[in-house]
Amino acid sequence: MTTQLCISDHANDRLGLAEFARQSMPYFRRCFLRHVEIPFRAVRPMKILSLTMVQFDGGGHTWIDFDLYNIVLIRLAKSFLFSPEAICMSHPFAALLASVCFGISATPVLAQLQISETPANPPFADATIQPVRRQETTTEFATVVDQVNEFTKKYGAENVLLVLDLDNTLLAMNQDLGSDQWFTWQEALQNSDKNHPELVAPDFEGLLEIQGMLFALSTMHPPEPGLPEMVGDLVIRKTTTVVLTSRGKEFRDAAERELKRNNYNIPESTLEIHEERGVFTPYSAEHPNKHGLNAEIIADLGSPRRVTYSDGIYMTAGQHKGYMLKTLLARSTKAFVDKPFANFKAIVFVDDHLKHIDRMQDAFAGDSIDLATFRYSREDRNVDKFNKSTKNHVIRDWELLNSFIKTALVK
User: Fold this and answer.
1) Residue 110 in domain
2) What is the pTM of this model?
3) pLDDT, tens digit, 9 for 90 and up, residues 6-64
4) How far from 9 is each of 40, 53, 72, 106, 331, CA to CA, in Å?
5) 26 and 168 assigned to the same domain
6) For the chain, how many structural domains are there in total?
7) Torsion angle of C-alpha atoms 256, 262, 263, 267, degrees rounded to 10
8) Rounded Cα distance, 303 and 298, in Å
9) Is residue 227 within 8 Å of 261, Cβ to Cβ?
């Protein structure tokens, strides 16, 4: 919807509308980040200024007539004047009052505000509408597809970014040993009791080594039937897609193998970045603003761990997924100082862990980009079953595997 503001002078042309337009343009440039044009035309015996200001949702055609003779003395607070929501919802003619207060003499003027339906133009909508923030839990990936389609209709496929977790989202282990829930259990034991008898390794580094071996030996499956096809359809339609995993760089080969074996073809439509293929440091305290963060955030994050990104798979080594995504977007070949999110106007993020959902929302809080996050709960039943179990089955499986490795493989 486009709002057209028409100001007509009935007081012997005492209000110079050309001067009005000249003085008002700087204000509207400050108040509204983008606007199309300010066409001017004179009609005798009165002059009309047609000013294309903002876009907002609304219906029908409405004319509002009112006398400004007394209203011109009103002084509106800047916080109100600079609020697009106030203009769109509370007082559609607030911009007119703002212009009058901006420096036009208090002359009796009859004003008319026409709200007429015109084709929506996305580049102007983001200046007047608050960014979408959606957070939802779902067992059906079709819900995610619906959200991607909604953003695509709004912005175009090339301006929508789909970010997908790997473990218990795109893929799940065929057994509990080596699964995401198994690793979480072992990590908790490491943090609570380094000498716990059920630990498979004496320290975290040893746990990572064993996890890597289990990744190499195990096969995985999609948690939901038809999931690779749904993701593949979005990729074919040129939705930029990134797999963002907490796995470290040493687990890349196993991840790529299982994604390919399960018919995921992410590289066909993924994000291009300036970094050469290989390992890199996601951020630097010496150059805090270089890769999408700032000194305060980096101080909270601490020292970075090395990451890799290639073929659409971003291995982030257990670091904050929200900020890791920001550092990746800042490296995009389409990113600039005034466009830290490259060409993207909307992000859809899917992960099975609530902490990663919350971190993604926190990382983009206050940013002018639509964000929809989905906690994908398809594997919750299997995770809950494991967490409530005695763990005897994975203890036995590990003992058998470890015994085989020691007797058959180690010479």
Assistant:
1) yes
2) 0.69
3) 344 333 333 444 444 444 444 433 333 333 333 333 333 333 333 333 333 333 333 33
4) 14, 20, 14, 12, 53
5) no
6) 2
7) -20
8) 8
9) no
